[in-house]
Design a protein that fits this description.
Layout lengths: L2 H15 L2 H7 L4 H15 L4 E3 L4 E3 L1 H25 L6 E7 L1 H11 L1 H6 L3 E7 L13 E6 L9 E8 L1 E5 L1 H7 L12 E5 L7 E6 L2 E6 L1 E6 L2 H9 L4 E5 H10 L3 E3 L4 E2 L2 E7 L7 H14 L5
Parallel strand pairs: 3-4, 3-5, 8-11, 8-12
Antiparallel strand pairs: 1-2, 5-15, 6-15, 7-12, 7-13, 9-10, 9-14
Length: about 300
Amino acid sequence: MSDRWQEMAVFVRVAESGSLSRAAREMNLSQPSVSRIVGTLEARLGITLLLRTTRSISLTEAGTLYLDRARTLLAEMEEAEQSARGVDSLHGVIRLAMPVLYGSRAVIPALATFLTRHPDLRVEIIMSDARQNLIADGVDVAIRLGMGPLDDSTFGSRRLALVERLVVAAPAYISAHGTPANPAELAGHACIVQHGLFGRESWRFTHNQAVTSVDVSAKLWINSAPGIMAATVAGLGIALATRVMAAEELRTGELTQLLKPYRLDPAEVHAIFPAGPKPSAKVRAIVDHLAENLTFIGE
């Protein structure tokens, strides 16, 4: 990479992450080198792009304008190089963020053939059920699992799959507290709700074209899908889960599906592109692959 392209790339990563040290780690450079490169860029342009204190880094007005244009130029350069190589020679790094349990059980297994097809491409996976700052984390694609409209309306997106949702409980809970015969009876049970994703205290069911919403009593709020599964298997209450989340526990009998005649709206799986609605060739390739391989998982 030429000096000017390197200056631009380093500046963009520092600006997005808000940290010299983080940008240095991600770009395999030393922190003094990153600081020197940004300083050289500013000296060459004759302007201040970043305001630095001991605790934070922020953009000047000129830095904000430069960042926007630099992102576009870097994306165009990558696109031009990839077009010349062709889709079968994708290379570089894709940073892929995903929820923990759905990622483990659905997304990661779907990557095997993709990585075999593109041996020069490296995928860095970030697994968390919390909503990350995708720009600061340098994420190229985020897999989001949830209900309703997306929060990140300025990002590009593509729906990948619809995944069946179920009401589940452990046999021990059912033995101690009984089985709800209809959604209304859930109000008298201990329920487990997940922060974010599709965790809600009002659960909506459809039966014979009639819609019923039930306000459940959430005894536990948990911020991760593995935690939801652990608490439910332990008999602490009734929970919502996707078929993917609960497939193994249902197979082994650790969990039982309740209220089978009543359907819940499916969870939507989306790919989010923080770079905007026109992602790079490598992002398009992995999203196309996931759309093809995730569509029918759990349905």
